[in-house]
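Show me a record, fold above all:
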Amino acid sequence: MNRKFKLILVLFALSATASLGKYFPLVVEGAVWGEKGGSIFNTSIYQYRLSGDTVLNGEAYKILNSLNLYNSNSNCYPWDNTQECNAPIVLKWNGVTAVVGFLREDTLAKIVYFKKTKEDIERVLYDFNFEVGDTMSFSGVKSSVSSIDSILIGMENRKRVVFPSTGALLREVSFFEGIGSDCGLFVDCYVFEGGTALLCYKLDGKVLYGDTNSCQDFVYTSVQHSPLKSSLKVFQKESSLVIDMGSNNPSKGTLSIRFINGTVLYQKENLTGNQWTLNLKEHPTLKKGVVLVEVVKGREHLSKKIVLY
């Protein structure tokens, strides 16, 4: 073995050691997780995105948003062999976003904390100081770390912590430093229905894990497939904005109001009834100009443009 080749091996070993000694934080502005969940009869695909900052009880947090995506073959079963179900999945965003909670990280202790929206309780979401033999409870199902190694993600080695399968309840789970688990950000790793899976992870515009389709940046376009679209009535009466679906849909709904460029001005979830009135004076974010009002209830996606004055 010549001297030059030996030098290359030494430099490679030093590079790998330095990479393993580096800690990759998980709570980073702009991080995107693409996931799928549900059952074989009703699979949903969605994104989590870290965007923006807030302070709660004196602690600084990043805001975690979720985007629900329209899946072109969400009605297909695994055994379906039709042209529609065999076609590549087409994903669209219906414009609905929600703040699901807040994340913060102690990078020295290598611990990630999560606080759910409208709750004061903070819980540990990840602890990247695990050692072989340490035990973790996955929603009541306990598993102990079986191995710790590194895996090449992007161009750098990241720490991987592996929990073995417990059989019928919990599948094998891997934690990746700076990303989370291979069964989703919130570690729902059940074997049967209700479990989730990580499809992709993106940071700084680069997909570091999984496929690019589920982590793409979606431009909002209103979904226009409801036969009752023309029944939606929206009008302003002095300082009040009235929204009337014109139907008797019993489902709970989400009301969104945004500028045409997609900027969200107002959003309310779990609405009951089919008519709502907003006092514009109580909602200063609802500014003058052309806005798009959208109601999502069950399978209905109704939208209408209006000029606020």
In short: Residues 229-308 form a domain with the Immunoglobulin-like fold (CATH 2.60.40.3080). The mean pLDDT is 77.
